[in-house]
Specification:
Elements: H1 23-32, E1 47-48, H2 60-68, H3 77-90, E2 94-98, H4 101-108, E3 118-121, H5 126-134, E4 138-141, H6 162-172, E5 177-183, H7 196-209, E6 213-216, H8 220-230, H9 239-248, E7 252-256, E8 267-271, H10 278-291, H11 302-314, H12 318-337, E9 350-354, H13 355-358, H14 368-380, E10 382-383, E11 385-387, H15 389-392, E12 408-412, H16 420-436, E13 444-448, E14 459-462
Parallel strand pairs: 1-10, 3-4, 3-5, 5-6, 6-7
Antiparallel strand pairs: 2-8, 7-8, 9-12, 11-12, 13-14
Length: about 475
């Protein structure tokens, strides 16, 4: 039964016209894009769910902040406003702005990881996994087993499997584990949250073996909302207090601020203990100057810094978060009625549809998640993203295609952008595809791919039955 839609805690005062296309036009455009949705022109997309990163609608206060941004090369007032706001929210003593999340990883990860080492995570997302590999190390995923059953409703399916984590540390040796990364929410597992209890347990194991713990904090606010709602010990805590406690268990954080901070560009690095980590901070600053820009702007304009400082506060507003998660629950409830399987219960930033259930005869190496994404575009002009074997790519040592734990098609919902009517269009399109899914018997093969992060650029073709 469809749940009640949570009304928006805002009014709309500016609109963007969306281009409408025909099914025939879309079939031709996706073919021209070599069946890679990243190659589509944005203007040819009706509902864009490719990502919730940098695609959000900023508020009137953020746009006013854009006009107030201090563009001084060094020591801008907007920088100090951002740093003070972030210190207050996260409780960390050192904050370094960068231009986005992957920049934070590029700056921080090489200081911990090198050839012959490993990094452990509840699950690495694509760019984080890539930066582990680029540093010479190898990623190891340790999500809890229940996450691998999308149809099973279980709270905190994003948790680290702490028993498996400790076994891996003992198997490889603590000296070989350069870093543990706790991803909140767990994007690759379907936007699933991590509990406070799990964060505490992960931190205790890291401390036991003297391994640094980093939080991948892209969706920290959504994670805090789930903790407040579903973890009894935290029910009476504020969102801000939940965030501060959770981050107290880690040593560092990296953040793409293009998600929960509701800006179009920006990222952060945080270091908890400035005195104990003085040498690390010097390395971070040196890398930032080399890769991003001077430390007090980190690759961002002053107007970006100003909007980011404001967005940090707007993103942790509980009324906004209730509406935000409510959008996902509304869309998911429509899929429940249609018996379409997704990672359940629904996560924080999107609905992850189990494409392998819609196309059970399409094998992992023909990329069912990509098949469904392409069909969604052809059906209704909806752009989405494969989170499966296509995105996972090849083994970095053998170059063999890896089989992902999931074959998801991710419907990532931008913040403050789409209405209930748009969500109904998405649900109707998925229902229509399910009804004709038996007509689609083969997937796609890759005709060209780069060596890393292939899904951004690869070319594909339809596999035709002989």
């Amino acid at each position: 039964m469809v749940i009640k839609y949570v009304p928006e805690p805002f009014r709309i005062k500016m609109v963007e016209t969306i281009k409408m296309t025909t099914p025939e036009e879309r079939a031709e455009k996706i073919k021209e894009a070599n069946y890679n949705l990243f190659n589509l022109r944005g203007e040819d997309v009706y509902i864009d769910l490719l990502t919730d990163s940098g695609t959000n609608a900023m508020s009137q206060d953020q746009w006013a902040g854009v006009m107030r941004g201090d563009e001084a090369y060094a020591g801008a007032s907007s920088y100090f406003k951002l740093v003070n706001t972030a210190k207050d929210i996260f409780g960390y003593e050192f904050i370094q702005p960068v231009h986005q999340g992957r920049a934070a990883e590029k700056v921080l990860f090489p200081t911990f990881l090198k050839s012959g080492q490993y990094a452990i995570s509840n699950m690495f997302f694509d760019t984080t996994r890539a930066h582990v590999i680029l540093a010479g190390a190898r990623p190891l995923d340790c999500v809890v087993p229940e996450a691998k059953d999308p149809g099973k409703r279980s709270k905190f399916k994003g948790n680290m499997d702490v028993e498996k984590m400790e076994k891996l540390i003992q198997e490889y040796g603590p000296e070989k584990i350069g870093l543990v990364v706790l991803t909140i929410t767990n994007n690759s597992a379907g936007g699933q949250p991590v509990s406070m209890k799990n964060a505490r347990e992960v931190a205790a194991i890291c401390k036991k073996y003297n391994i640094p713990l980093n939080i991948d904090a892209a969706r920290y606010a959504e994670n805090a909302y789930f903790i407040k709602r579903d973890e009894p010990e935290c029910a009476n805590m504020s969102i801000k207090d939940i965030i501060k406690e959770m981050f107290s268990y880690a040593d560092f954080f990296t953040m793409s601020a293009k998600k929960d901070t509701i800006v179009n560009m920006g990222g952060l690095i945080g270091v908890k203990n400035a005195v104990e980590n003085a040498d690390m901070i010097l390395k971070i600053k040196a890398n930032c100057i080399s890769f991003e820009g001077f430390t007090t702007y980190g690759g961002l304009s002053g107007r970006d810094l100003e909007a980011l400082a404001i967005g940090l506060l707007e993103g942790i507003d509980e009324n906004f978060l209730r509406y935000r998660i409510g959008q996902m629950e509304y869309l998911a409830s429509r899929l429940d009625d249609a018996e379409i399987i997704y990672q359940s219960p629904v996560g924080g930033h999107g609905v992850f549809v189990d494409a392998s259930k819609i196309f059970p005869n399409i094998p992992f190496n023909e990329f069912p998640g990509q098949v469904l994404a392409i069909e969604l575009y052809k059906e209704a002009g909806i752009r989405s993203c494969d989170i499966g074997s296509y995105m996972l790519g090849n083994d970095p040592d053998t170059n063999e295609q890896l089989e992902a734990d999931f074959e998801f098609t991710r419907l990532a919902i931008p913040r403050r952008v789409y209405t209930q009517a748009h969500l109904d269009v998405i649900a109707d399109a998925l229902i229509a595809i399910k009804e004709r899914a038996h007509e689609i018997t083969r997937g796609y093969r890759i005709t060209w791919e780069p060596p890393i992060l292939r899904h951004f650029q690869a070319s594909l073709e339809i596999i035709k039955d002989q």
